[in-house]
Amino acid sequence: MALGKIDIDFGVIVTAPGNEVDFVSRFFAPGAGIPEDPACGSAHCTLIPYWADRL
């Protein structure tokens, strides 16, 4: 699904397992005027507990 087709009021975090790292992620917040933030610290506060259970 293309991100342009998702109704985003604020932002969305996209994550997946990595090949050379544990996981990869991107944060998109067009509603807040941030097209993409590849290293969003606050997003990782959510991702770390998620991935800790899976790694």
CATH class: Alpha Beta
- Estimated radius of gyration: 12 Å
Termini separation comes to 26 Å
Largest sheet: 3 strands, antiparallel
What is the name of the CATH superfamily? Diaminopimelate Epimerase, Chain A, domain 1
Mean of all residue-level pLDDT scores: 83
Strand order of the largest sheet: 1-2-3
Q: Which residues sit in consecutive blocks of at least 5 with pLDDT less than 50?
A: none
Question: How does the helix and strand content classify structurally?
Answer: alpha+beta
| Secondary structure tally: strands | 3
Question: What is the percentage of strand-forming residues?
Answer: 25-35%
What fold name stands as the CATH topology? Answer: Diaminopimelate Epimerase, Chain A, domain 1
Helix content: 10-25%
Order of helices and strands: EEEH
Shape call: elongated
- Count every helix, treating DSSP H or I runs of 4 or more residues as helices: 1
Total domain modules: 1
Sequence-ordered SSE layout with sheet pairings:
Elements: E1 12-17, E2 23-29, E3 34-37, H1 41-52
Antiparallel strand pairs: 1-2, 2-3
Can you describe what's shown?
With 55 residues, this protein is of the alpha+beta class. It has a single domain, classed as Roll (Diaminopimelate Epimerase, Chain A, domain 1). The chain is built from one helix and three strands; from the N terminus they run βββα. It has one helix at 41-52; strands spanning 12-17, 23-29, 34-37. The chain has a three-stranded antiparallel sheet with strand order 1-2-3, with helices on one face. β1 (12-17) and β2 (23-29) form a beta hairpin. The protein is elongated and about 30 Å long. The protein starts with 11 loop residues before the first strand and ends with a helix.
